Amino acid sequence: MAHTALIVGCGKQKIWNVKPWLGAVPAKDAYTGPLFRLCRRYAETHYAQDWYIFSAFYGLIRPERELLDYDISFNRSSSATVSQKNLGEQYAMLLDRYEVIISLASKAYNERLRVVLTSPAILQLPLDSKNLFDRMKWLKAGLSRCP
């Protein structure tokens, strides 16, 4: 089986929305929206050691990386988003060794991912054309097939 990595897009809902006094938290705990939580469960179930989070501000990061609160998205124009250069460097450092990369991120994030994909890795986007309801349905079906 090909060595595969999974990328999960970050989310707008963050822990600091309900606990603004918190400082840095691991990235996997920073995002609290229902889609992210479902993606996280899917990632931890199927790709325990090979999943990453794609943040518009921090770029490609490991789930354990400590983050501080931010409000940046690729869906809104901002000069604070991760640069293509930094994203490319992160890709080379974290993902270059994988043969298959599956992204559960949104279209805006996947467009940036395609630009930095330099290795011969195959990029799969199983949720790319699905609406929110169908994304959640696909993830739940993937989790129901677990032992």
Describe this structure as you would to a colleague:
By secondary structure, the protein is an alpha/beta fold. The protein has a single domain (4-144), classed as Rossmann fold, CATH 3.40.50. The chain is 35% helix and 17% strand. The protein has helices at 27-30, 34-46, 84-94, 107-116, 132-144, and strands at residues 4-9, 25-26, 51-55, 59-61, 66-67, 100-103, 122-124. Strands 4-3-1-6-7 form a 5-stranded mixed β-sheet, with helices on both faces. Strands 2-5 form a two-stranded antiparallel sheet. Helix 4 links the parallel strand 6 (100-103) and strand 7 (122-124). Helix 3 (84-94) packs across helix 4 (107-116). The longest helix is centred in the first third of the chain and has 13 residues, at 34-46. It is globular, with a radius of gyration of 15 Å. 31% of the residues are buried. The model has no long low-confidence stretch (mean pLDDT 89).
Topology:
Layout: E1 4-9, E2 25-26, H1 27-30, H2 34-46, E3 51-55, E4 59-61, E5 66-67, H3 84-94, E6 100-103, H4 107-116, E7 122-124, H5 132-144
Parallel strand pairs: 1-3, 1-6, 6-7
Antiparallel strand pairs: 2-5, 3-4
SSE pattern, N- to C-terminal? EEHHEEEHEHEH
Number of strands: 7
Number of helices: 5
Instruction: Report the helical percentage.
Output: 25-40%
Provide the domain count: 1
CATH topology: Rossmann fold
Based on secondary structure, the structural category is alpha/beta
Unreliably modeled segments: none
What's the CATH class, please? Answer: Alpha Beta
Taken as a percent bin, the fraction of beta residues is 15-25%
Oligomer: single chain
Sum up the overall morphology in one term. globular
User: Which architecture would the CATH scheme give at its second level?
Assistant: 3-Layer(aba) Sandwich
Rg on CA atoms, Å: 15 Å
Largest sheet: 5 strands, mixed
